[in-house]
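Researcher: Next entry in the queue.
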Amino acid sequence: MPAKWLLKSDPDHYSLADLQREGQTVWDGVLSNFALKHLANARPNDLALIYHTGREKSVMGIAEITRGPYPDPRQNDRRFLVVDIKFCKALPRPVTLAEIKQEASLRESELVRLPRLSVMPVSEDQWKTLMMLAGR
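Model: Structure for this entry, 136 residues:
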């Protein structure tokens, strides 16, 4: 079964709408060692939630990882990784961080516990709960 991830982006820099318009992109800009460790475990066919930071603070949609981690060609340091992703779909409605914090089964998620982390795993149960919230 493919792994599931959450990828954070400032929508003023790159949004789900940008990904939808372009169809695919290189997911770059990950600098945190802990986030890079997670990104290093991403594989093709894994799914990723796209989360908007800033004012929105919401899970917005789903992407698929199409190419696993490789060194960022724009960096001179091989430890900085990127992955290629493609747009899958926008959620029926965004799931806000406030809603996530209110959901008992999500209170221990890395999104709540480590709010500055830009790449994080999402368990199957967390994914199902987020999809249920998005469908409300």
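Model: Helices lie at 16-22, 33-39, 97-102, 110-113, 124-134.
Researcher: Noted, moving on.
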